[in-house]
Amino acid sequence: MSISQVNIDAFRAINDIGIKNVSLDPIAIFMADYMIFVLALGMLVYWFTRTNKNRMMVIQGGVAFVIAEVLGKIAGTMYYHNQPFAELPHVNQLIAHAVDNAFPSDHSILFFSICFSFWLVRKKEGWIWLIVAVIVGISRIMVGVHYPGDVLTGALIGICAAVFSYWLVPKLSFVTSVLTKYEKVEQAVLPIKAKTEDQSNHF
Q1: What is the dihedral of CA 152, 153, 158, 161, to 10 degrees?
Q2: Is Heme one of the keywords (predicted)?
Q3: Rounded Cα–Cα distance for residues 30 and 187 (Å)
Q4: Residue 93 to residues 37, 87, 96, 127, 172, Cα–Cα distance (Å)
Q5: What is the pTM of this model?
Q6: Nearest to 150 by CA among 97, 111, 102, 109
Q7: With b meaning 16 or more CB within 10 Å and e meaning fewer, what string describes 3-23?
Q8: Which terminus of the chain, N or C, has fewer Cβ atoms within 10 Å?
Q9: pLDDT means per 10 residues in the chain (203 residues)?
């Protein structure tokens, strides 16, 4: 399908930043391609603080991502276009990427579903995660693999899925049951003094 001129103009404005400021290109590449590993590390750190609050937050983020991915795939069947570097001339393409359906942005779906889940539970540092998600979205435009519309749609899907998961997951008794059984096994293998609620608030 054809891309709106507004979407193209917005893409050009952001993608051209890397042409005018070459020093920003390595940052854009890192955020677009490698920040996903920092997010994964963050989830592991939250999980192994071994507090119920953090573990439920990680589960909610995981569930939100799955829901958002499903919604994203459905959206992708309704609207299709290739990456900007495959459709427009003189694109500042900074990373290699297959030519396929760029709508919506999978990276935006991933980061906003999980980072917004973090924000819903831990608003103090959750703002940092939200800023990271926004920067990752912008970086995907800067490196030439997504239009702003792809990123905004992915962000919206991710946020909606995070809110739904935040409401749903605590109501699922089997989640609590599985987590309790897991923690019993973990405690047997790696015993640790249980944290109080006051201590857990520091993580």
Answers
A1: 140
A2: no
A3: 37
A4: 22, 12, 8, 29, 44
A5: 0.89
A6: 102
A7: beeebbebbbebbeebeeeee
A8: N
A9: 88 95 96 97 92 93 98 96 95 96 97 98 95 98 98 98 96 88 82 56 53
Closest CA to 192 of 43, 51, 53, 59: 51
pLDDT given for residue 196 in this prediction: 46
Amino acid at 121: V
Domain count, the chain: 1
Domain of 44 in residue numbering reads as 5-200
Torsion angle of the four alpha carbons 126, 127, 133, 135, in this order, in degrees rounded to the nearest 10? -150
What CATH number corresponds to the domain at position 185?
1.20.144
